Amino acid sequence: MELADISTIAAAGVAAVGIPTALLVGRWQMHGAVKAAEATSQAGIAQAEAT
Fold it and tell me: CA Rg, the chain, in Å?
């Protein structure tokens, strides 16, 4: 195998692992952001009801 072939295989391996990992991390971050938004919304509603 030539260096270009090895580089191509290595890049494909990194992409095969990196893309699903990035998607999982993004989903995890989105889940955290949604929970924070829900908490902020609940606090806003409670404050609005108190006034």
Answer: 22
Q: Where are the domains of the chain?
A: 21-51
3-state secondary structure 1-51: CCHHHHHHHHHHHHHHHHHHHHHHHHHHHHHHHHHHHHHHHHHHHHHHHHC
- Looking at the whole model, is its pTM more than 0.85? no
pLDDT digits over 13-44, tens only? 999 999 999 999 999 999 999 999 999 999 99
